[in-house]
Amino acid sequence: MASPSSDSPATKAGNTLLQRMMNSDIPKTHFFRLLTIPHIPQPDLSSAITSQEDEDALEMRPQFFAKESQDPSNPLSSPAWRPSGAWKWITGIGIRACRNVVTLTHDRKSKLYFGTGTIASEIKTESIQFLCKAWPLDGNLKEFVTEVALHKCQMRALAGTYAPTIIGVFTGVGVANMLMELPHQAFWVQASADMPDVLKKRCVEAYEKLHAAGILHGSPHLRHLLIGGDARVTIMNFERSRVLDPVSNTHISQEKANAAELRLEMRKVKYQLDYDNARVKEKQKWDRYKARLEHCKVVLREAIDPTSRPPQVLEVLAEDVVDPPVDTRRLKSWAPEQSYSSARFVVPTITAEAFANAVEKFIANIRRLEREGDGPPPSRSPSPSPPGIQPFRDQPLVDQQPSPDKPPAPRRSSRKRKGAADDAESPTKRRKTVVICPPLPITPASSIEFAASPPPKPITVESFVGYSPTISDQDAGMF
Q: Are 229 and 186 in contact, with CB atoms under 8 Å apart?
């Protein structure tokens, strides 16, 4: 079926609707401008999807750890992923006529693309659209092992809500493929700092759920937060993830994280989104540290002079103890690169009119959420609680101990009573206690974000063998 051209009535109707939304009272930000750019269907892509004959069409087969063995007890003959839920029916079935329609991201370790294929079983035959993340088999499969293990264990409860739903793990020509459901059937956009607060809140909530599951994403960036056409947030790219409680199985390669790293990652996410003025708050945190540092310098100078009065005590906020300030020069590395600009992806088979209607519903949904609210905000981050912090105690720099047979004299007021005699004691007889607030140590971002960890185990076929003690082999498949 031919796709509508840019001059078709459907395309014109869709563009007219988008133009009307652009001229309405929606904010004139990059986020909304990106949404309301007219979608022009590309016939080449649509025809490539609908065509059943393509020289580039390949077949994917279920990923096994080794060639199928005649011995069923051989763990290497087990599948790397056992489909479940709505995809349970494709267990043991390959995907035919697979095509890489549009490459979304690509680096030397992996690539992510929008693709299509056909699944044929005794039950039914179905054409599917998917996101595929592919790793070359001749490279280091550490990232592949990390991401698949995470989806099979700690992140199973988040699939389809805050993390993508996995269709299956398949072998292609020289690559290992992890197929995922689309974030939305019409379109999705990457997160940005100028999108509505209700969407920022959903992004923060997604990371709260991730941290509550004991998972450190490891690479927080706005490009890894996808906002679907239903305003649902999906977190992508877990190649660098670590967990608070690695699965106790010597065959699964999972690195350990700690609670401080989760808190720092949440601060970084909020900073990138500028959620609840996070960028201003981080600067204020650093300014408070500098003020305490300067104050302590003054105290140390005045402590030498016994005639000086006790200095004023500066309060140390508990949040500055739990989450130490980060140098503003290091905060620059938290912000998205200047070259970063959120992108939009429209499913190639959708028409311009259908896309315009989807955008209209999306904007209406955002307004409804802003008007009615998106549920009560979480009282606190569900990340694991930090260890108890001991409050700072008074630290006397100069302290003359009172005589043992005399009780300690009460602290004298620095204000002089009207008409009172000047009975100031000599400096040598005055009891002087100087109380200061020691400056908080600077916690370099790099010391937490890139904390040294034990060298990873070499990734081999045996790295996949084993099972999760909390997931049955029947449901999750063998590693």
A: yes
